[in-house]
Specification:
The complex is a heterodimer of chains A (about 110) and B (about 120).
Chain A lengths: L3 E4 L2 E5 L4 E7 L5 E7 L5 E8 L4 E4 L2 E6 L4 E6 L8 E9 L2 E6 L3 E6 L1
Parallel strand pairs in A: 2-11
Antiparallel strand pairs in A: 1-3, 3-8, 4-5, 4-9, 6-7, 7-8, 9-10, 9-11
Chain B lengths: L3 E4 L2 E4 L5 E7 L5 E7 L5 E9 L2 E4 L6 E3 L9 E3 L8 E8 L10 E2 L3 E5 L1
Parallel strand pairs in B: 2-11
Antiparallel strand pairs in B: 1-3, 3-8, 4-5, 4-9, 5-6, 7-8, 9-10, 9-11
Chain lengths: ~110, ~120
């Protein structure tokens, strides 16, 4: 079973706009992570946020975590064509460190 | 260079055959994972291992087998019992633990096709 569900499933925006995608999960977590996957490739880690953190930044990325709502959001600012990819959230839990992925959001940046 | 390597990149299997996918890491990670990805879908966990000589079933373990004889290696065998094996297979590794950075590193994947 998938722990996380990303929303929306697909998103198309103009280059330069901001992209926001959301992740909801079912059980209490230790860490939540976001990954990017270019078509036909492996996943690349973007950012990790711990359960006791509420917001984290890395370059053009901003991640928020709301443990009361069991949800997280990933904001990509000033999008570029190279940001076109699928984005996944992943969680691990206390006492159960297996990494479980959501269903992903397919982001397309229109030049 | 440190990293995680999967081989082969492409693999063709005949009906009824077992095939083994290789995954090697030199990152000194404790945990290793195998995921299956179908077109346009998310990642589903097949097996994972947190320590040598021990592994756990994931959500879709039926028709697959693994071994963890060395920390660096976690091969996946797709057996003839797996009725729909055509998919993209991803191997990953990470540290584990409460205060650890559990960032996972992925291989480039193996695309398995049944012919």
């Amino acid at each position: 079973s998938q722990q996380g569900e990303e929303d929306p499933q697909a998103l198309s925006i103009q280059e330069g706009e901001n992209a926001t995608m959301n992740c909801s999960y079912k059980t209490s977590i230790n860490n939540l992570q976001w990954y990017r996957q270019n078509s036909g490739r492996g996943l690349v880690h973007l950012i990790l946020i711990r359960s006791n953190e509420r917001e984290k930044h890395s370059g053009r990325l901003r991640v928020t975590l709301d443990t009361s709502k069991k949800s997280s959001s990933l904001l990509i600012t000033a999008s570029r064509a190279a940001d076109t990819a699928s984005y996944f959230c992943a969680t691990d839990s206390f006492g159960n460190e297996k990494l479980t992925f959501g269903t992903g959001t397919r982001l397309t940046i229109i030049p | 260079d440190g990293g995680i390597t999967q081989s082969p990149k492409y693999l063709f299997r005949k009906e009824g055959q077992n095939v083994t996918l290789s995954c090697e890491q030199n990152l000194n990670h404790d945990a290793m994972y195998w995921y299956r990805q179908d077109p346009g879908q998310g990642l589903r966990l097949i097996y994972y291992s947190q320590i040598v000589n021990d592994f756990q079933k994931g959500d879709i373990a039926e028709g697959y087998s693994v071994s963890r004889e060395k920390k660096e290696s976690f091969p996946l065998t797709v057996t003839s019992a797996q009725k729909n094996p055509t998919a993209f297979y991803l191997c990953a590794s990470s540290f584990i633990g409460l205060d650890m950075n559990t960032e996972a590193f992925f291989g480039q994947g193996t695309r398995l096709t049944v012919v």
